[in-house]
Amino acid sequence: MTSHWDKFSHLFKRQEVSAKTVLLEEGQISRTMFFIEKGCLRTWVNNDGKEITTQFFFEGDKVASIESFRMNLPSLYSIESLEPCILQTISQQEFQNALENLPEIKKELEEHLFRRLLHTQKLFYSYLKNNPQKRYQELIEEHPHIVQRIAQHYIASYLGITSVSLSRIRNR
């Protein structure tokens, strides 16, 4: 958490979760924002019973279904731990109070949303332009820690391919 958040550290609750803990279900209203102290989270959507991973988050990242958290809409995706995690959590109301009382927090949220938008756009255009081999190559170049820490079937899902296809790509 950044120094701006230190003023609100008393509002955070420490939460330890084991691997494979669903923190938010797709369709639920998000009431909590998670700051990852240790571990890894992923977001995913359910496509006719098949889980499709949409993003990975690591130490230092903030995670919420932001459209749900800020607008009380059903979440478009689930949030789940992939490793045992230590999280700092803040509720909607406490977060709203922080936004109203510290303009730096609002600016930080803006920057965070911009980074998420940029990441989503890059991924979207990569799906349109690139074959799976090229998407995997981009992942290795831009996010090598994902390939080192995340199970192959989650990476395959994230790239929009099967685990078998990912194995073939890795063997090339």
Keywords, separated by commas or semicolons:
alpha+beta; Jelly Rolls; globular; 172 residues; 47% helix
The CATH homologous superfamily of the domain at 3-101 is termed Jelly Rolls
Per DSSP E runs of 2 or more residues, the count of β-strands stands at 8
N- to C-terminal separation? 40 Å
Quaternary status of these chains?
A: single chain
Using only CA atoms, what is the Rg?
Answer: 17 Å
**pLDDT < 50 stretches:** none
Largest sheet: 4 strands, antiparallel
Average pLDDT score:
90
CATH topology of the domain at 3-101: Jelly Rolls
CATH architecture of the domain at 3-101: Sandwich
Description of the molecule:
With 172 residues, this protein is of the alpha+beta class. It has a domain at 3-101: Sandwich (Jelly Rolls). Helices cover 47% and strands 25% of the residues. It has eight helices and eight strands; from the N terminus they run H-E-E-E-E-E-E-H-E-E-H-H-H-H-H-H. The strands form two sheets. A four-stranded antiparallel beta sheet has the order 1-8-3-6. The chain has a four-stranded antiparallel beta sheet with strand order 2-7-4-5. Helix 3 (92-101) packs across helix 4 and helix 7 (152-159) packs across helix 8. The model has no long low-confidence stretch (mean pLDDT 90).
